[in-house]
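Operator note (shift B, R.M.): manual run for Plasmid stabilization protein requested after the automated queue skipped it. Running by hand, logging everything below so the morning shift can see what happened. Input copied straight from the record, untouched. If output looks odd, do not overwrite the archive copy; leave it for review.
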Amino acid sequence: MKYYAVRLSPEAQTDLVLMHANIVDRSNSNVTADTYIDRISGFVSSLNVFPERGTVRDETRAGLRIIGFERSASVAFVVEDNEVVVLRILAKGQEFDRTISL
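Run finished. Output pasted below as returned.
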């Protein structure tokens, strides 16, 4: 079984920070935000095994894959030789086509 390194782009890291802040604003709870970010981080980390999942979106970017998380967020990533690069992590309702830098 092959294992891949998983790396978050600076944009994906920013997405997580903004998601956390948004959850704190809506729920008034750091614990709720921390728990959600921990779950999504664990999900993203699981891409280290069998990362060729999700919907392929070659029309947007060659090799781009999008996978949903708990029906509340979408993760956009590409699988390279030994690494999975997470490009963006967007909350439900945001569109990838306009936000992913090619």
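Quick read of the result: The radius of gyration is 14 Å. Residues 5-91 form a domain with the YaeB-like fold fold (CATH 3.30.2310.20).
Leaving this for review. - R.M.
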